[in-house]
Design goal:
By secondary structure, the protein is mostly helical. The protein contains 13 helices and two strands. α1 (about 5-10) packs across α3 and α10 (about 190-215) packs antiparallel against α11 (about 220-235). The mean pLDDT is about 85.
């Protein structure tokens, strides 16, 4: 197991589970990209923050744009930048979005929420898109949507953990003007408001998952199933965030048994979709017979 795959097996269990259905080469490429994204996120979120946090991340952005192989974070992904030059700008945009993700960040409304999620996660979708065989620009927005959907799930799942770090990613406009920034604690007075805001967030996530999954056909056929599994497993996390109209106090996770069930259901959907696609491509027999009969009449002069 490579160092990248070891990291994913510990830090990204859902993604690691889904990568079992990727070819070895694509799996390694995806692991390298994921590893980079995770390292940048860890540097941006470290508590306490490293003294040179902003300067370091700015240097990472510059190193990406200049393909500086001497930089410790860029060297491992240089082969990806060489083979997939289109990921350069999403990589740089991701780093910049993570750099701006500080405790003083205030998300005021849904538009700002979408912008934030696109920066830190929609760009991950854009990075993964060509690695997974996407070539058409038409598929880019679907890839970004899956990234945004997963970030919305992250926000919902990590509400309690983020409060301990004095961070709130729910829009202030959803919280009836109560930002919780005075106490950073859930209590009987503010929990109902938080619950409704989280439900609203998960509703938006669900819409993004649906649209993102509808664009899987833009990926290489052999990679579509793995991404469907990853998305559906992540989507299932949202089902565990709210319990009996209260916020789950422990981090919501999807068990391995549940993931296997999701994968089996995805396999049925994938097989049905493939059959439908083959039927659409197969010429209908009655059309063939009609054309044949018409040709024979024309050639024999029979009307």
């Amino acid at each position: 197991m490579t160092s990248e795959m070891r990291l994913i097996s510990k830090a990204g269990k859902t993604f690691y589970f889904a990568t079992f259905w990727l070819s070895q080469s694509v799996r390694l490429d995806a692991a390298r990209a994921y590893n980079f994204c995770r390292l940048v996120d860890d540097i941006a979120d470290a508590t306490p923050a490293r003294p040179d946090r902003d300067a370091y991340l700015s240097c990472v952005t510059t190193a990406i744009l200049e393909e500086d192989d001497s930089h410790e974070l860029i060297n491992p992904i240089l082969p990806l930048l060489t083979r997939f030059p289109e990921i350069r700008h999403p990589l740089a945009a991701l780093v910049e979005a993570c750099r701006q993700d500080v405790s003083s960040l205030h998300i005021q409304n849904e538009r700002e929420l979408e912008s934030y999620a696109h920066g830190v996660a929609g760009n991950v979708g854009l990075i993964m898109y060509p690695i997974l065989g996407g070539t058409s620009d038409l598929g880019l927005s679907y890839a970004a949507d899956l990234g945004i959907a997963m970030q919305y799930t992250n926000i919902a799942r990590d509400i309690m953990e983020d409060l301990t770090r004095k961070r709130i990613y729910l829009p202030t406009s959803w919280l009836s003007g109560r930002t919780l920034r005075d106490t950073y604690e859930i209590n009987p007075q503010n929990e109902p408001i938080m619950v409704e805001a989280i439900r609203r967030l998960l509703f938006l996530a669900d819409a993004r998952y649906s649209r993102g999954l509808s664009g899987l056909n833009y990926l290489a056929p052999e990679n579509r199933f793995a991404i469907r599994v990853a998305a559906q497993c992540y989507r299932a996390i949202g089902d565990r965030v709210i319990k009996n109209s209260t916020i789950a106090r422990q981090r919501s996770v999807v068990s391995n048994l549940r993931k296997i069930g999701i994968a089996c259901k995805a396999a049925i959907h994938h097989r049905t979709e493939r059959k439908a696609s083959l039927l659409e491509r197969k010429p209908h027999t009655h059309h063939i017979l009609a054309h044949t009969e018409s040709d024979l009449r024309h050639k024999t002069g029979v009307s």
